[in-house]
Design a protein that fits this description.
Helix content is 37%, strand content 18%. It contains nine helices and twelve strands. The strands form three sheets. It has a seven-stranded mixed β-sheet with strand order 1-10-6-5-4-2-3, with helices on both faces. A three-stranded mixed β-sheet has the order 7-9-11. Strand 4, helix 3 and strand 5 form a beta-alpha-beta unit. Helix 2 crosses helix 3, helix 3 runs parallel beside helix 4 and helix 7 packs across helix 9. The protein starts with a strand and ends in a 6-residue tail after the last helix. The mean pLDDT is 95.
């Protein structure tokens, strides 16, 4: 359950974003600029969280009273092996060494909806966490490390679990809106696993950064699922994107790599925490993504 230290929104003294080039980090920094929120972005070129000396470098760069937003991590496209898993845990270990001795106003750890078992629907913040692969196990382990580290100073910890995020400028090629747009625009086709009958929730990047900002300004602690609360099949999603791009986009099918698994969310906890927040409707988010993709300069 999400709880607020501030009942009314108050801008943080300063927000520090760990991770500079990622999709969420770059959009969050832009959101802060637009809303005049004091912040600093620290990327791996400035401070490498895999190196032991990063603890001392973080102590110099981050001030007492700062809020820390952790977006740093190696995503599945960088590897799904044990080596990648251990690197992600090493980052968390080094971060924990810093957090345990820091006087932070808040820590927000960006996790993933992959941590949930998903066998019992709808998924809630209280749903069982159970690893399905090394990536989900990594996030579960890092969540626990952050809980242990923040407990030392009684620092409010917000565990932020987004479902599949979409929007222009995404750095990944995950199955869903981002990949569908890419192949539709470049190859005039969208490829579905099986019949695309799986039901999924997709959240617009602008909603993600808005929710992060709300969590910061309320100094929220606990768990929040960053989801839209609306589901659609991959087949329906492909049809929407095909219509946006043009009718000559082919929708193809290939043998699925895993069993059909649906995922849907109960958003009652989020609605209770932020009653004024209204997610972007999928059609509107897809239309805006398409417009931005067609205005991004081609290299």
């Amino acid at each position: 359950m999400l709880q607020h230290r501030h009942s009314s929104p108050i801008k943080p003294q300063r927000a520090v974003i760990l991770g500079s080039s990622g999709f969420v980090a770059s959009n969050l920094a832009r959101h802060f600029n637009e809303h005049q929120i004091n912040h600093r972005v620290i990327g791996s070129k400035e401070i490498d969280l895999l190196k032991p000396q990063c603890v001392f470098e973080l102590q110099s760069a981050i001030h007492d009273g700062d809020a820390l937003v952790i977006t740093s991590g190696l995503t599945p496209d960088k590897g799904r092996d044990i080596g990648t898993f251990m690197k992600n845990l090493k980052m968390a270990e080094n971060l924990a060494s810093f957090i345990e001795c820091a006087s932070l106003s808040q820590v927000i750890y960006i996790s993933s909806d992959s941590v949930y078992n998903g066998d019992v629907l709808p998924i809630r913040e209280s749903s069982t966490r159970q690893p399905r692969d090394l990536y989900s196990l990594m996030h579960i382990a890092r969540e626990q490390i952050m809980k242990f580290a923040t407990a030392e100073q009684k620092t409010p910890l917000c565990i932020f679990c987004p479902c599949a995020i979409y929007g222009a400028g995404d750095t990944h090629n995950s199955y869903g809106p981002n990949r569908f747009f890419r192949t539709a625009l470049s190859e005039r086709k969208i490829t579905l696993f099986g019949n695309g009958e799986e039901v999924r929730d997709h959240v617009f990047i602008e909603d993600v950064v808005q929710l992060l900002n709300l969590c910061l300004q309320h100094r929220s602690e606990g768990i929040i699922n960053a989801v839209s609360g609306t589901t659609v099949t991959f087949h329906e999603l492909a049809s929407k994107i095909s219509d946006l791009c043009n009718q000559d986009v082919r929708v193809e099918h290939q043998a699925r790599e895993s069993q059909v698994a649906h995922r849907e969310f109960d958003v009652s906890e989020r609605t209770k925490a932020f009653p004024s927040f209204i997610p972007t409707p999928l059609d509107d988010g897809l239309a805006k993504t398409f417009l931005e993709l067609n205005t991004i300069p081609k290299n």
